[in-house]
Please model this.
Amino acid sequence: MSFNQTPPTLGNQYTDDRVLRSYLKRVLPPEMLSEIEPSLMEMGRLSGGELYRMQLADRLNEPLLTQWDAWGNRIDRIELTPLWRAAERLAAEHGVVATAYERKQGQFSRVYQCALAYLFTPSTDIYSCPLAMTDGAAHTLLSSGNQSLIERAVPHLTTRQPEEFWTSGQWMTELTGGSDVGLTETIARKSADGVWRLYGRKWFTSATTSQMALTLARPEGNEAGGRGLALFYIEMRDESGRLRNIQINRLKDKLGTRKVPTAELTLEGTPAELVCGETDGVRNIAPMLNITRLWNGISAAALMRRAVALALDYARKRIAFGATLIEKPLHLDTLAGLQAEAEAAFHLAFYVAEMRGLSETGGIDEDESLVLRLMTPVMKLTTARQAVHVASEVLESFGGAGYVEDTGLPVLLRDSQVLPIWEGTTNVLSLDVLRALGSDASRTLQVLKTKVSDWVETARDDRLKSAARICLSALTHAESWLMLARQEDGSAMEAGARRFALTLGRAVSLALLVKHARWSFENEGDERAAAAARRFSSAGIDLLNAQEMDDARLLVNESSTR
Ligand code: MFK
Model:
């Protein structure tokens, strides 16, 4: 008699997702939900069925770069894997970018788009990367006011016709690094014919198969730093399909996101168009970053949901020590903690999507704009760290099977690990949080606290009230910490920036969980959202308990005294 384990399986990923369905029911007008639900159902069906099977079958495939043809011509052609080719077509057809620009759902178009992306992402091996950049490019071009580029590119970026659909790259990182973008070395020269041409090396260009890219370069003679850079638009290929003075040197050999054709490029006089002026490139590309950071958070929530769904399904089937794993109190407790993290991340990411949608449809005031600017990096960095933690725990929950490649599980951890790195590392984004708060920090924090108080004040039972108290006290502590740190030298504030940002992220997530829990109990008679809020409230919200700079220095010091 031999024993074989039963692998985890997935059902319709929309139907099975209590959190997504309950959230959409709370946020969307009922007739709107009925109208869009068939498309979500279809995406959920694909994601748990056909696409998931295709993803497992595509496991060993990777993009292939061919630099030379048989006759000695440099061609630099990248071939995508079958999964990614299917994903590109499906993304266009299902409007995974387009929905946000068609605006048929008004202020809720972003929420709807993010719901589609959330369902689509985990079965397509991070096809969300090119989609995020495509969305970011459309948003940036529209904000730039450059009418000819808007007319030329935006219809392609936002179409539902696969043959017309373009994706965009976002080329920022150079050998000088991915964080301090102001060090960019690529030079822009204007030739006699009035055409700008770019010369330099781009060191980490994601999804190089795109038709266009937005990138930064320094017009010759401009000052150093981000202010001296300009934002440029590039079309990758000419009418005959040849790359326009771009060489693809090699594809990156990365820990994860192996389907994403990330490349090192040399620009050798690549023709480019200015998007908006000859300076302030970093400021002008920022709209793109704010969209890709939203996608990062939605992808983090989506990968957590996938990981926990597989772990739960397996726990219901796997028998060890005489019972299914789900019947084992310790295993159950571990999974409950992961579910609570995933729910918290979901609500935080979709809150930013709601705010983004409001902002795009003119329904946001100045105070709320400050909150959106603040919460975008807060949400990105918080959810990304959660995704790595959850994916790692989920692999462990499978025991040895979680460490074996052909279960399709290890990729969850590898792909999650990119989320705190790209689009700004946790530390860089923590500093961005301080920048977003700017000189008027108390005003922005006050607006945030007022919102959070509204969400939690009606908490129903005593145990939810305690979650509400934890959340409010963490926010108050964060505010007083910031005010005190500001009075000290800059290093105190910088050293605590990450714990400060994570405290904001976890406190606001908890407030959103409490808010949703109350609604779900009153409208659906469901206690599970409240259980998530209670569980999350005891998982570390206020991370600012005194950890002084002196101790930090001592810990990493080579000597044992201060
Ligand atoms: C799954 C989905 C994910 C999709 C992934 C897609 C593929 C990923 C490919 C990449 O990873 S692309 C590279 C991503 N790189 C980054 O995210 C860069 C990380 N570094 C930062 O974010 C730095 O903070 C930054 C480069 C912005 C610092 O540069 P600077 O030159 O020191 O900026 P500075 O002087 O602080 O800001 C310049 C202006 O931009 C200021 O405005 P003013 O000129 O009016 O004063 C800032 O306020 C503004 N700004 C900066 N960040 C902003 C912003 N405005 C709005 N939103 C922001 N986020």
Q: What stands out?
A: The pocket of decanoyl-CoA is lined by residues 128-129, 132-133, 170, 172-173, 178-179, 181-182, 206, 225-226, 280, 282-283, 286, 289-290, 292, 295-296, 299, 422-424, 428, 432, 435 (CB under 6 Å). The radius of gyration is 24 Å.
